């Protein structure tokens, strides 16, 4: 049993006794060293990796301005460390990847030897077709086993992968290809989603056409066959069937790993920010490798016999770091599942845990909330007794979901690690270390090694110095150190990297999240304080959605905000002003607006509510006061203070908008 003390849940004695780190004192000693002497701390960990050439300096840079280099002068290859190095350590016949397709019978096991062979063959096929070190290559692939294989193949030959989430539309895909200038793409003929065959190639083709219209010619589209008997059109001069390439005699089972500089780019991951276009966070080789390895080992208290199941999509950072790189760098067995938790029935995750004897399960609060609404028999009919640790990621976990997770999934026996981090971080930044100290439902707990979070008061002018908030006082969560996994820049936009992260609180990395710290030093994340929303764990910028709405000819103004949603965590509420000359009905326009967002960004970004308003609440300089719209959308109209209304050019609009608020069904 986990022991409860006030709101603190301590791990059981049995858990502590087998854990890597067994006390808060031991954790604190390690944390202190990681901050005061990072060279010794990270240098010691990095020695266990395979290096073609050792580094000359562990860290060089100025964290206050986001100029960071790790393992300077070293040469390594992350794919080599994920596969070859594990085989050298005797794990060749150990299962590396367990793939569960949506059809139950479609289940594949890959040992480390198998995975190396597949990765080498894919790497050779890409190389034969002209993919080289430094090329950006977009992977528009869903959750099929070929996705991690292609990622590792790219890493092996030094091509920079950019995985674009399968739920993004052709337009969103094209934006990302244009932003990183990728002339090559890997996609698939189709995949399974809730019993339906989805055609990914049609979106890929459309994205290539949009890129061509914008002046970027796509030279190569490599197509992986996920589906049998699912014919998609091929464009002969551009498209290559990878399955045919892989059958060629000349494709050998071995491909040497490229000697990569420690700071050579590994991947670009697009994420949403406060301003319109997506931001391409650039992660480099050695720092990301050492950081994902270390966080996976200590936060999940990983042991050789664990079976690890992370339910994220590899199209997001969580899947990169904790389905692919972190687990494989530890020589672990990682489980990957193609589809949704509710197909064919709402017990698919519990079934997978039972089937593969999963010991560590990592999912998102939105998933927990959706599954706790299902009949309890769906979970009770499965044997979950192999589980020993649970994780949560993506958004704050509400205590009700935490308790349900702990009781029904963890049988009051498994510690829960609530891991706070972001795409920019590469790996987890704040979390419980499960053997070392307890968890408090709703708090992400304490910083990981190398991470020094501070809660700062918000500044109103450029001259004000940074001031730390008091204990329990809400403020802006910032980071005062550099850790090896931090992004190095925004691809092609160094100024945006500087201005977006290092100017709000000069000298600190600004996370965009609000937080407070309690008397025990535990951090409580209160959610985004910028124009970023988190819908079912998908990070979206409200400005991107506004841009999509504004592309409809009948819309003259649009403002989108997030509001609390029982299952999704947050949902989107759009306020729009209609062109006076528009003749269409509001209902028709509402449908069209949803269709526009679906096609410009993807289904995840479609607003749950769209309200037509006559005027926006604007301040005297004409800026929409979103705080007021947020209060209306969240049904917290009583909390709109006079001081908020007084700054408006036309205070009367607030009542008008509030009266027409769209309620919950
Ligand atoms: C890993 C990931 C990052 C944003 C982040 C924050 C929210 C993530 C959280 C959490 C509270 C947690 N977030 N984990 N909030 N508790 N454990 O999700 O990356 O997609 O970049 O989103 O998600 O608001 O700033 P990303």
UniProtKB/TrEMBL annotation:
Key words of the record:
Acetylation, ATP-binding, Ligase, Membrane, Nucleotide-binding, Transmembrane, Transmembrane helix
**Name of encoding gene:** acs
Q: Where does the Acetyl-coenzyme A synthetase N-terminal domain lie?
A: 27-82
Q: Which SUPFAM superfamilies match?
A: Acetyl-CoA synthetase-like
Give the AMP-dependent synthetase/ligase domain ranges: 89-489
TM stretches of this protein:
137-159
The protein, known as: Acetate--CoA ligase
Among InterPro entries, the record links this protein to: Ac_CoA_lig, ACAS_N, AMP-bd_C, AMP-bd_C_sf, AMP-binding_CS, AMP-dep_synth/lig_dom, ANL_N_sf
- The EC number(s) given in the record are 6.2.1.1
Q: Which GO terms describe its molecular function?
A: acetate-CoA ligase activity
Annotated AMP-binding enzyme C-terminal domain residues: 544-623
Pfam families to which the protein is assigned, alphabetical: ACAS_N (PF16177), AMP-binding (PF00501), AMP-binding_C (PF13193)
| Source organism of the structure | Maccoyibacter intestinihominis
From what superkingdom does this record's organism come? Bacteria
Family label? Belongs to the ATP-dependent AMP-binding enzyme family.
């Amino acid at each position: 049993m986990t022991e409860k003390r006030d709101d603190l849940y301590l791990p059981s004695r049995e858990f502590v006794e087998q854990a890597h780190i067994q006390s808060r004192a031991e954790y604190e000693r390690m944390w202190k060293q990681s901050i005061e002497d990072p060279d010794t701390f990270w240098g010691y960990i990095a020695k266990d990796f395979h290096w073609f050439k050792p580094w000359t300096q562990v860290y060089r840079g100025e964290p206050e301005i986001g100029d960071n280099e790790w393992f300077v002068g070293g040469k390594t290859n992350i794919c080599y460390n994920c596969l070859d190095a594990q085989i050298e350590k005797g794990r060749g016949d150990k299962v590396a990847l367990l793939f569960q397709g949506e059809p139950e019978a479609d289940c594949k096991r890959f040992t480390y030897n198998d995975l190396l062979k597949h990765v080498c063959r894919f790497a050779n096929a890409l190389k034969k077709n002209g993919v080289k070190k430094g090329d950006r290559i977009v992977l528009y692939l869903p959750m099929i086993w070929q996705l991690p294989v292609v990622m590792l193949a790219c890493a092996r030959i030094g091509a920079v992968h950019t995985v674009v989430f399968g739920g993004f539309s052709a337009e969103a895909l094209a934006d990302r290809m244009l932003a990183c200038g990728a002339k090559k793409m890997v996609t698939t003929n189709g995949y399974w989603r809730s019993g339906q065959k989805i055609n990914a190639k049609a979106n890929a083709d459309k994205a290539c056409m949009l890129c061509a219209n914008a002046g970027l010619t796509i030279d190569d589209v490599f197509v992986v066959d996920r589906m049998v008997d699912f014919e998609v059109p091929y464009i002969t001069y551009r498209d290559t069937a990878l399955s045919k390439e892989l059958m060629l005699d000349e494709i050998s089972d071995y491909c040497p790993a490229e000697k990569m500089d420690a700071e050579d780019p590994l991947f670009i991951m697009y994420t949403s920010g406060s301003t319109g276009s997506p931001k391409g966070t650039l992660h480099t080789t050695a720092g990301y490798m050492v950081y994902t390895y270390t966080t996976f080992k200590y936060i999940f208290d990983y042991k050789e016999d664990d079976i690890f199941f992370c339910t994220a999509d590899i199209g997001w950072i969580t899947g990169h770091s904790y389905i692919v790189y972190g687990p494989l760098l530890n020589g672990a067995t990682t489980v990957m599942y193609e589809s949704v938790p509710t197909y064919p029935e709402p017990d698919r995750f519990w079934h997978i845990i039972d089937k593969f004897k999963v010991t560590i399960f990592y999912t998102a609060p939105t998933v927990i909330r959706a599954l706790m609404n299902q009949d309890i028999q769906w979970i009770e009919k499965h044997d979950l007794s192999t589980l020993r640790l649970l994780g949560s990621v993506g958004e704050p976990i509400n205590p009700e979901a935490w308790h349900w997770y702990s009781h029904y999934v963890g049988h009051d026996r498994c510690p829960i690690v609530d891991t706070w981090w972001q795409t920019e971080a590469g790996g987890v930044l704040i979390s419980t270390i499960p053997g070392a100290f307890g968890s408090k439902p709703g708090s992400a707990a304490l910083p990981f090694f190398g991470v020094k979070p501070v809660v700062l008061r918000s500044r109103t002018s450029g001259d004000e110095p940074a001031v730390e908030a008091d204990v329990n006082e809400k403020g802006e969560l910032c980071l005062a150190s550099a850790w090896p996994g931090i992004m190095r820049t925004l691809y092609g936009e160094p100024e945006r990297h500087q201005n977006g992260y290092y100017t709000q609180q000069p000298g600190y990395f600004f996370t965009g999240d609000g937080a407070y710290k309690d008397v025990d030093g535990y951090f409580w994340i209160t959610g985004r304080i910028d124009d970023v929303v988190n819908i079912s764990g998908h990070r979206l910028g409200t400005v991107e959605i506004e841009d999509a709405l504004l592309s409809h000819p009948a819309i003259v103004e649009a403002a989108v905000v997030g509001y609390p949603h029982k299952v999704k965590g947050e949902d989107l509420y759009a306020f729009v002003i209609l062109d006076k000359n528009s003749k269409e009905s509001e209902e028709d326009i509402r449908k069209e607006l949803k269709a526009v967002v679906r096609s410009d960004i993807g289904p995840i970004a479609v607003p749950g509510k769209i309200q037509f308003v006559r005027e926006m609440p604007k301040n005297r300089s004409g800026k929409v006061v979103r705080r007021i719209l947020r209060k209306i959308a969240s049904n917290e109209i009583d909390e709109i203070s006079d001081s908020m209304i007084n700054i408006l050019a036309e205070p009367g609009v607030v009542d008008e908008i509030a009266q027409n608020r769209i309620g919950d069904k």
